[in-house]
Amino acid sequence: MAEATQEPQVEQIPVGPSPAGTEAQTGAPALAGEVERALADVVGGASLAGKRALVTGGASGLGAACARALAAQGAYVIVADRDGAGAAAVAADVGGEAWEVDLLDTSALESLKLQVDILINNAGIQTISSIVDFEPAAFRRIITLMLEAPFLLIRAALPHMYEQNYGRIINMSSVHGLRASSFKSAYVAAKHGLEGLSKVTAREGGAHGVTSNCVNPGYVRTPLVEGQIADQARIHGIPAEEVLTEVMLAKNAIKRLVEPEEIANLVAWLASDQAAMVTGSSYGMDGGWSA
Ligand SMILES: NC(=O)c1ccc[n+]([C@@H]2O[C@H](COP(=O)([O-])OP(=O)(O)OC[C@H]3O[C@@H](n4cnc5c(N)ncnc54)[C@H](O)[C@@H]3O)[C@@H](O)[C@H]2O)c1
């Protein structure tokens, strides 16, 4: 596939053109990814063949699932994460490339120019605390990673997208982009801000062939959620084994976690030509949490 041989077109990033762990060093998995994508082209009519996608937080959970779903549709995927080894592993798996980057270093993103067709703003973290006890530095960290960095990446990607009159921005929001929960002030504020940023991007980008949408998962089976269980138990004063039913799934109509692949399929559809008229929208997949 032609796109696999292209030079990386992420400019002004602190990595060289052949980051450690990409196909040069891990030939077999990269080849497997190539074969998978070639097969998808032939069998499924890959809708994203020839497209370059950047997925932040692509080393784990939802980001890794998105990288796989986009690659399965033929996209060449750049896996961006502060976890360089994790990003390299996913990149090798999908025949793409890794970009080891700490998105909290926003000054490095201010002069960035991205040559991608699809941008998935997905990297995220969580801190659980009452507002009274919330560390200001922890609040700022979440807003920086989950609102300011997406703004800077969109800003870096739009000129190329405008030039080619095509682009897809997909922002991994949350049910917490639309609703609030106690003890998540920074996360809820960042996700509500991301919803606004996404809509402004949709308004400005519409005339240039660029769509921008949010995806709003309920609780998904990922390390981010597994890591919350102890904190949720402590702050709600309940045993850890009750957190899933009493806190996380309490508002769900369908009492199970969302699987990462379910969200990734929605993301791949939003990136496709079938979703060309979908913009400024927020797509829930929360088992009825927000109903
Ligand atoms: N898991 C859920 O239940 C759920 C629900 C709704 C929304 N989301 C959102 O989905 C996104 C992904 O969450 P996940 O559950 O897959 O989490 P995860 O912890 O599995 O993955 C997050 C990834 O982001 C990366 N990351 C964190 N800080 C970074 C930084 N400073 N620079 C670069 N990369 C960084 C991590 O290394 C990790 O690979 C987040 O935005 C989260 O808010 C998750």
TrEMBL record:
The keyword Oxidoreductase applies. It holds the Pfam family adh_short_C2. Its EC number is 1.1.1.30. Keywords: Oxidoreductase. Residues 1-26 are annotated as: Disordered. InterPro entries: NAD(P)-bd_dom_sf, Sc_DH/Rdtase_CS, SDR, SDR_fam. One of its GO terms (molecular function) is 3-hydroxybutyrate dehydrogenase activity. The keyword Oxidoreductase applies. NCBIfam families: PRK12429.1. Belongs to the short-chain dehydrogenases/reductases (SDR) family. PANTHER family: 3-OXOACYL-(ACYL-CARRIER-PROTEIN) REDUCTASE, 3-OXOACYL-[ACYL-CARRIER-PROTEIN] REDUCTASE FABG. This is 3-hydroxybutyrate dehydrogenase. It comes from Arthrobacter cryoconiti.
